Amino acid sequence: MAITRRQFIKRTGLGAGGLLLGPSLFGSPFVRQAFANIGSRYLVVFYLDGGNDGLNTIVPYDNVGGLRTHYNGQRGAGNGGLQLAPGSLAVPSGGGVPPMVDPNTGAQLGFHPGLIGLHNLYLDGKVAVVQGAGYPDYSLSHETSTIVWQTGNPTFNSLLSGTGWCGRHLQSAYGPTDVPGVTIGSSVAGEFRQTATSVLTINRVRDFGFPYDDYEENDEPAKRDAFAAVYGEAAGSTNPKKSFLGAAGNSTLLSSESYPPLYGVYTGARQSWYDDYSALDTGPGRRFREMAQVIYGVHTGQPGVQARFFESRQGGYDTHADQGRGNPGDAQYDLFREFGDAVELFYRDMEDIGIANDVCVVVWSEFSRRIPQNDNGTDHGSQGPMFVIGGSVNGGVYGNHPNIDPNALDDQENTPYSQQGSFRSTDFRDVFGTILKHWVAIPEPTLLSSILPVDSGDPADYWTVHDFDMGFLP
Fold first, then answer.
1. Average predicted confidence (pLDDT) for the chain
2. Fold of the CATH domain 31-208+261-451
3. Please, is 80 exposed, middle or buried when counting C-beta atoms within 10 Å of its C-beta (0-12, 13-18, 19+)?
4. What are the pLDDT digits (tens) for 236-271?
5. H or E segment at 224?
6. Domain parsing of the chain, residue ranges
């Protein structure tokens, strides 16, 4: 079977959602830097796609500091209103439970009633709620703001262009024969984009495979031998570009054969857990199920599987209409039940395997929603909460609830980003930086020099002083 150069390049990993090619690809493709090592840990990035309404996610329960008065004044209680009554909130309490209190105002907070799964994990001290996360000069464009969060680059620094905040670590620590990351989805996550190593995209582990063409399916063994021969020859070339493509292509080919057996390994040992994920019958349930299979495969030492970084998402959070007040059947409630139930099951699964302390999940959305509601939904906003979940997480509330006093809102009725004052914002890069420093083990000087450099500008309005020790990780 003849293979054209175009086919060769296309199938070296791109066809399987792998290697991303860019202008800086061949600067030092075979150099691995051992200074940063995630070791036996796993990092999961989960994206609430569409702009989740943060004000109805972590909600003022009482009126300490006036938060509840301001909340009631901007979220209606009548027909079409979005106001969540205090009694409907999931408010963590009990001995040994981290207090869910705003550090700034002292107000008691509660979870949206749909987030009962997250509430249950908070009771166990396994959830850090990070309030007021955003960035300077915020954008209300889904596309632009998503890029900002995925790249960790709000100022569009050209030195960081085209790479993800996590991808810049992957580029420095892994080479063309490695496959350190997996996106559960159909395209490589923006967080993982880089130019030095491979990232797989998988919808279902058991169906994953190399992208052979559909012509004459009976000759797949011959096709496999042909690709292996081409990749092997290319990998041995003295031409660095050809050698890189050969090594990466061979790695993708081997991965396409190593990952499907993970389904049988997992179900053979953990069928009831697989069934529990499937019984949820939701997108998040299926995506966490697929991640669980890969993580279990790595944990049990299955050959050819080495992924430590994962990403997936749940869409539907662009709630301009019919957002609801927190009842089953309401848009935000149903989204939260799907996500919360899935992430709780995933954590319990990891706990049962014995590796909950080795798994960290960070949850983000590209922006929050406007503080005043519209007729029966919310428009695009600015700052909102993030979540960090895991057995090693120091549970509690971090960062300040945004100032929702109507007199404090900007001309778009959103909470302004500020790095000063009692309502100081949490820059999302501090959250990612804390995870990279304390979970992935990247030294702070490296973070600041090449992964998350601070801004220049007015220190009141820009992120000029970092905090990579936020305290939610040991």
1. 91
2. Alkaline Phosphatase, subunit A (3.40.720)
3. middle
4. 989 988 888 888 888 888 888 999 999 999 999 999
5. helix 220-235
6. 1-24+221-258, 31-208+261-451
